[in-house]
Amino acid sequence: MKRRLLVSILPVALLASCGDKSEDEAAGDAMDPASEQALNDDLATDPDLAGRNEANAALSGTGNAAVPNIDKSPRAIEAARSRAAELVGGRSKLVAPPAAKALGKDSAPSKAMVAAAKAAVAPGGANCGDKVEYTSAWAAKLPAAFPVYPRGNTQEAAGTDEGACALRVVSFVTPVALDEVLAFYNTRAKRAGYSVEHVTSAGDNILSGTKGKAAYVVYGRRLPQGVTEIDLVTTD
Predict the structure, then answer these.
(1) Strands (E), the chain
(2) In angstroms, how far apart are the furthest CA atoms of the chain?
(3) CA distance to 18, 147, 151, 174, 196, per residue, from 180 (Å)
(4) CA 185 to CA 119: how far, in whole Å?
(5) Is the pLDDT of residue 102 over 90?
(6) Can you tell me the distance from the alpha carbon of 152 to that of 96, in angstroms, rounded to the nearest whole number?
(7) pLDDT of 35 strictly over 60
(8) Whole-prediction pTM value?
(9) Are the C-beta atoms of 146 and 159 separated by less than 8 Å?
(10) In this structure, are residues 167 and 62 in contact, taking their beta carbons and an 8 Å threshold?
(11) If I label 96, which of 46, 84, 130, 142 is the partner at 20 to 30 A Cα–Cα?
């Protein structure tokens, strides 16, 4: 049975703390009601499970789905690494993201995370998350800068181009180490002209950034099964 793809773009809890900011900064980051509603909703793509809130479980890698058997042999890992290196112009071109900052319950999110969250709401206040459709085809429709990591095993994929929305959500696993996967996305993001910010929250490493109105968020974690799990969200 298919596992429900549940990824909160950015929980409202991360956006609620503006107490340490000046009034001008807080006003600039303020969320309108439609944005807050969008951020509070999950991208629920399995109608049979609609209404159940398992977003936190999905983000922490503790959902009900079993991680599939994937090839974790040294040969498979090296093949994935080699292809990833090719996609950035060579292994020497891979650049690790900046050191992560811990994002606590009362910490204000980075500007990039706020911008990425707002980008999930289409002009006019429509929640793009309500419009997503579940099909593996969306994994092939990610922006060119953010493909599924080479040889990654896609678990779920959802997206929508309805109206003013251009939202993609893909969850995949790979045997390659988390820091290498994050370096890949950091390098791809910078090459494509996106900003990059790196934080940790609730056991996840989170890369996020923007370029104009486009945004991305990469949630990554290492699972006990010896694989890296990535939830990748992009908006245009």
Answers:
(1) 101-102, 133-134, 153-160, 167-174, 197-201, 204-211, 214-222, 228-235
(2) 55
(3) 33, 15, 14, 11, 16
(4) 19
(5) no
(6) 19
(7) no
(8) 0.74
(9) no
(10) no
(11) 142
